[in-house]
Write a structure and sequence with these properties.
Elements (H helix, E strand, L loop, with lengths): L21 H15 L5 H6 L3 H19 L1
Amino acid sequence: QIGSTTPLSLATNLQEDLDMDSLELVELGITLENEFDISLPDAEMRRCTTFDAIVQLVSRAEQEQEARSA
């Protein structure tokens, strides 16, 4: 939630700590896709429960993008 006072860390739970719903997770995925020029399947974004899971998903997508470009 914008304006949340919840401290953020890799272990922050997106749904429990920040009250994000599945639509907000998909919207976050779209923002990350645009920012990093990658593709993140909606189903995988909805399965992310923590910031760490998102970092891993983005990292994996970047590696896959680089492999396709090589």
